[in-house]
Amino acid sequence: MRVLIVGGDGYCGWPTALRLSARGHSVAIADNFSRRRIGRDLGIESLVPIFPLEDRVAAWHETGGEAIAYHDIDVAEQYAALVALISEQKPEAVIHFGEQRSVPYSMMSIEAGRYTIRNNLMSTTNILDALVQTETDAHVIHLGSIGVYGYETLGYEIPEGYQKVRHVDTNGELGPEHETLHPFNPVSKYHLSKALDHLGLAYYAAKHDLRITDLCQGTVWGAETDETRRDPRLANRFDYDPVYGTVLNRFALQAAMGEAISVYGTGDQTRAFIHLEDVLGCIDGAISSPPAVGDRVKVVNQITESMRIRDLAQLFAELSNSEIVHLVSPRSEPDGNELDARNQGMRDFGVSPTFISRENVSALIDFARRHADLADTKQLYPDT
Ligand SMILES: NC(=O)c1ccc[n+]([C@@H]2O[C@H](COP(=O)([O-])OP(=O)(O)OC[C@H]3O[C@@H](n4cnc5c(N)ncnc54)[C@H](O)[C@@H]3O)[C@@H](O)[C@H]2O)c1
């Protein structure tokens, strides 16, 4: 299948490009390298050095992979170039990772928030419009966030995208049951952009018959895949800083360095997680089972498990004999919450999940230990 991966230079996009290429798909990447630029501007770097995209794809080819095409396009701003690329490649699937994905970044300043909303909304809308304009029947797989439903305790299992409702009519009688998008409760401008994406996707599925899957992803953890291990030039990024670092990756490096495991606030926050390998499994499953033309957006909660941050920290502390410190939370979010979300879609994809087990966490700490001499300890604790 011809697959266009937007944001294919990023943490999830790069290993996806390699996996799909290894599976025999014809892969092209579009990326504007904004993630690398933001990192440079903020003075934060991936723990594992990542090579320029041209070196990455050359290394893939040299180590036996098929050629991967790549295009320096800002899909939010360069609509004509995107249309030209889609006309030329004629993708059968477009996987859209190309958004600004840091919650703290989106809340750093008015300008960073405006950029996040503009970039994320326009990248999604431009991709959808370009498919409509070029009459390309490609399955769009969009990466959303499970955080769009907020971090209040809901007291029920969050369904996959849609909830059943019955309206009360003017006589006070309950009307028939139907389904509607589950309400959103974004806690950041990043989550607001993802909630708005949902509406945009629903519109293009309904009005333009686009086939769309929306993967509402949890926080991703993990470092390597079989493909990224083939050559150091294929390495994936590993972010641990307070802006782009995800919590498990940061805890792993803190544990590897014998530094205190830093919990924001009480640690009673519950978050949903998924291992990078399972992200690839879900993408594979999504590609193989597209919705039909005319279907509503297929929403999948792309999460393996939910855990309290306090319990996670305890696990890392035990495995490394590190202390736990509770820092004043730099985030504006509830001190604690329960989070229960359905993940039937992911099971239907046949993904056999990688859990946050002692064994898997030890392997992650070992990985971080192998690269710990490159760590910048100033990046371990929040200043945002
Ligand atoms: N990593 C996570 O824990 C996580 C969790 C939930 C959802 N997601 C979502 O998954 C997707 C991928 O996340 P990631 O961790 O790989 O992020 P990332 O920042 O590592 O990768 C995103 C890539 O998209 C590119 N990009 C951004 N805007 C672009 C534009 N306008 N045009 C072209 N390229 C653009 C960036 O340069 C980067 O290479 C994002 O949409 C993110 O919101 C990620």
Any overview of this molecule?
Strand 1, helix 1 (13-22) and strand 2 form a beta-alpha-beta unit. The protein starts with a strand and ends in a 13-residue tail after the last helix. With 384 residues, it is an alpha/beta fold. Helices cover 37% and strands 19% of the residues. It binds nicotinamide-adenine-dinucleotide. Residues 6-7, 9-13, 30-35, 74-76, 97-101, 119, 123, 143, 145, 217, 219-220, 246 line the site of nicotinamide-adenine-dinucleotide (NAD).
What is this structure's SSE topology?
Blueprint: E1 2-6, H1 13-22, E2 26-31, H2 34-42, H3 53-62, E3 69-72, H4 79-89, E4 93-96, H5 103-106, H6 110-133, E5 139-145, E6 162-168, E7 174-181, H7 189-208, E8 211-217, E9 219-221, H8 247-256, E10 261-264, E11 270-275, H9 276-288, E12 298-302, E13 305-308, H10 309-320, E14 324-327, H11 344-348, H12 358-371
Parallel strand pairs: 1-2, 1-4, 2-3, 4-5, 5-8, 8-12, 9-11, 10-14
Antiparallel strand pairs: 6-7, 11-13
Helix pairs in contact: 1-9, 4-6, 6-7, 8-10, 8-12, 10-12
Bound molecules: nicotinamide-adenine-dinucleotide (NAD).
Nicotinamide-adenine-dinucleotide (NAD) binds next to strand 2, helix 2, helix 6, strand 5 and strand 9.
